[in-house]
Amino acid sequence: MMTYTTNKATAIDLRKDFTAGLGRKLMIGAAAAMLLVSATGCSNMNKQEQRTLSGGALGAAAGGAIGLLTGSWVTGAVIGGAGGAAAGALTSDKQVKLD
User: So what's the pLDDT on residue 82?
Assistant: First the structure.
């Protein structure tokens, strides 16, 4: 049986390295998402298409952030984006009241 021994200083150093990389990846992901949304333009889309796009973008961002914490940010972003896009596409104008 293998045993691992770590001291408190090693655990803290590893945590600092992880959180430093996490913040950088989140910033890159957020910048890429904003670039994608601004490049596509929503002016010629109907309301359902806009909800689908924004739901997909928000779902991908949330899924990517959760994926960073659980292991694979790419898988999280794909699953979150698909779920968000589906929720946006399946929502009708009557269900969304922004008045």
Answer: 92
Extract the tokens encoding 53.
């796009």
Does 51 reside within a domain? Answer: yes
Q: What is the structure's pLDDT at 76? A: 87
Tokens at 1, concatenated? 């049986």
- Contact criterion met (CB below 8 Å) for 98 and 83: no
Residue 83 lies in a domain: yes
Instruction: Give every CB contact of residue 71 below 8 A, 6+ residues apart in sequence.
Output: none
**Is the pLDDT higher at 72 or at 12?**
72
Number of domains observed in the structure of the chain: 1
As a whole number of angstroms, the distance between CA 35 and CA 62 comes to 17
In a domain, 97, yes or no: no
pTM across the whole model: 0.55
